[in-house]
Amino acid sequence: MILVIAEHDHKTLKSSTLNAVTAAQQIAAAESANIQLLVVGYQCQAAAEMGRSIAGVSQVLVCDAAHYASQLAEEVTEAIVPLATGFSHIIFPATSYGKNIAPRLAATLDVAQISDITQVCDAQTFVRPIYAGNALETVQNNGHQLVISVRCSAFSPAKYSEQNAPIKSVNGAAVFGVSQHISQSLTPFSRPELTTSKIVISGGRGLSSKENFQLIEKIADQLGAAIGASRAAVDAGYVPNDYQVGQTGKIIAPDLYIAVGISGAIQHIAGMKESKLIVAINKDKDAPIFQIADYGIVGDLFQILPELEKALV
Ligand SMILES: Cc1cc2nc3c(=O)[nH]c(=O)nc-3n(C[C@H](O)[C@H](O)[C@H](O)COP(=O)(O)OP(=O)(O)OC[C@H]3O[C@@H](n4cnc5c(N)ncnc54)[C@H](O)[C@@H]3O)c2cc1C
């Protein structure tokens, strides 16, 4: 049996859950297992209801209690541990949510974690990128139980279907209490979410200032795109940290990725090279980003972006 840990906001499932279910389906096919989905949250019935119609999910387990409201890794792990027995694979999306909980769960269960898989070879064998995506490693682990995180961009989302898998309430653990949720500051977004948007336009150090990022914003609004950034742009304070694309930021694979004033360091490319179409704008014709770009414009972004904006009206 395979357990997928749902990422959700208590009301709706995040699309990353669907990517994790697809990976689970591939493992399930290899070992004829069934898939259960676990929703740990507070007043999260609506999220569980969504889960019951995901194709391939045979049962939804719901663990609903006030101390799961903040989804702290310490509390969620305690909820999963007593349920883990009997599951050969416990699968998380390799998002901030999954990366926060999976290692703690693996350590508590004293089993191996296989991180960030991009391919399922069989039920014990997986491919995962290493060295910032410059090499692919095939890992086999014959342990009785595996904790796995799934690179979402490598697995298409599972489909919703007509089915109504049963929902079962399960008991959570008592309050663990080693950590406390103090506050949350959310970046207000009127644009599509970076990890799920079909079009992303990213800016780098070449933008030179926070104010100049408005040039990117205008194009993003015209294209209905999400905005990303290089780490240099984030470190310089041009945009918030959660815009960062790359090895230590978000790993994305949109249909169209436009890199503006970004040199194309390997750590940045690790986060966007799976994009279906890559367009680069850079004044340096030798910038490494052009090596992976499908279309390149060599020139000054301060001239090109306003022209692009006009052309898109
Ligand atoms: C452990 C580690 C992890 C990292 N993780 C990440 C990560 O997740 N994501 C990430 O992005 N980086 C990451 N980095 C940093 C990475 O190595 C680079 O430093 C960073 O990506 C550079 O950002 P940049 O391309 O915006 O800046 P630069 O490399 O400075 O490039 C700026 C580009 O803008 C161009 N430019 C300047 N002015 C103009 C103009 N007017 N018009 C057109 N083009 C112009 C320049 O020609 C240049 O190519 C990491 C580094 C380390 C060591």
UniProtKB/TrEMBL annotation:
<keyword id="KW-0249">Electron transport</keyword>
<dbReference type="InterPro" id="IPR014729">
    <property type="entry name" value="Rossmann-like_a/b/a_fold"/>
</dbReference>
<feature type="domain" description="Electron transfer flavoprotein alpha/beta-subunit N-terminal">
    <location>
        <begin position="2"/>
        <end position="180"/>
    </location>
</feature>
<dbReference type="Pfam" id="PF01012">
    <property type="entry name" value="ETF"/>
</dbReference>
<dbReference type="Pfam" id="PF00766">
    <property type="entry name" value="ETF_alpha"/>
</dbReference>
<dbReference type="InterPro" id="IPR014731">
    <property type="entry name" value="ETF_asu_C"/>
</dbReference>
<keyword id="KW-0813">Transport</keyword>
<keyword id="KW-0285">Flavoprotein</keyword>
<dbReference type="InterPro" id="IPR014730">
    <property type="entry name" value="ETF_a/b_N"/>
</dbReference>
<dbReference type="InterPro" id="IPR033947">
    <property type="entry name" value="ETF_alpha_N"/>
</dbReference>
<dbReference type="InterPro" id="IPR018206">
    <property type="entry name" value="ETF_asu_C_CS"/>
</dbReference>
<dbReference type="InterPro" id="IPR001308">
    <property type="entry name" value="ETF_a/FixB"/>
</dbReference>
<protein>
    <submittedName>
        <fullName>Electron transfer flavoprotein subunit beta</fullName>
    </submittedName>
</protein>
<dbReference type="InterPro" id="IPR029035">
    <property type="entry name" value="DHS-like_NAD/FAD-binding_dom"/>
</dbReference>
<keyword id="KW-0274">FAD</keyword>
<comment type="similarity">
    <text>Belongs to the ETF alpha-subunit/FixB family.</text>
</comment>
